[in-house]
Design brief:
Strand content: 35-45%
Radius of gyration: 17 Å
Structural class: mainly beta
Largest sheet: 4 strands, antiparallel
Order of helices and strands: EEEEEEEEEEEEEEEEEEEEEE
Helix content: under 10%
Strand order of the largest sheet: 3-4-5-6
């Protein structure tokens, strides 16, 4: 059922439904504190709470594209990404959202920032984008794969991980030219089913192979 939000206060032993006020499918949630957080979803949906989810308030995203990931670096500055290369940024906690130029039409599944300036977005066809100016400009990086990339997370300005279809995991020490230092081996065989963002059902079998180290030119 659309609009589902669950909350736990005991480490996940029990989960309590919250009232989201929407029937849209929700894809991503991010909190900057115990009280303040956002969720995003289909139809350009963005919801915000300032009381731990007791109430959720709709924000105006300015798009009807499905939004698949949201990330904030503090209570004011955050980004949301989604279908068609959509990237939105807010500097006032979501009161207003401004489109950014991603330079791609690929579906973006995940966004993560380590500070207000440096962040990454990943998506279809091995897409990895990086910004060092808060999203004013986004630069493609060489992932070394054409697999769909579903999530990205960095622990510093250089070290992070990306995961994707076919049990793909990328670990990298990215520098300014986008070097990928290590890729894992895809298992013998895996079946992938994709229904995210209202896309047609996609099912494929990936044969065994090893992805070798790649460097951007």
């Amino acid at each position: 059922m659309g609009g589902t939000i669950l909350k736990t206060t005991d480490g996940g032993t029990t989960w309590t439904p919250q009232t989201s006020g929407t029937i849209q499918t929700l894809y991503s949630v991010h909190f900057v504190s115990e009280t303040t957080g956002w969720v995003v979803g289909s139809g350009g949906t963005i919801l915000k709470t300032t009381n731990g989810g007791t109430t959720w308030t709709a924000q105006t995203s300015g798009t009807t594209q499905p939004l698949l990931s949201v990330h904030f670096v503090n209570a004011a500055i955050g980004w949301a990404v989604g279908l068609g290369g959509t990237i939105l940024k807010t500097t006032n906690g979501g009161t207003t959202w401004t489109p950014q130029t991603s330079g791609t039409t690929q579906l973006l599944y995940s966004v993560h920032f380590v500070n207000a300036a440096i962040g990454w977005a990943v998506g279809n066809s091995g897409t990895i984008l990086k910004t060092t100016d808060g999203g004013t400009t986004w630069t493609p990086q060489t992932s070394g794969t054409i697999q769909t990339l579903y999530s990205v997370h960095f622990v510093s300005e250089t070290t992070g991980w990306v995961v994707g279809s076919g049990s793909l995991i990328l670990k990298s020490n990215f520098d300014t030219i986008g070097i990928i230092d290590a890729l894992t081996i895809i298992p013998e065989e895996i079946t992938i089913t994709n229904t995210i963002a209202e896309q047609p059902l996609l099912k494929t079998t990936v044969p065994a192979h090893t992805l070798k180290r790649q460097r951007a030119l």
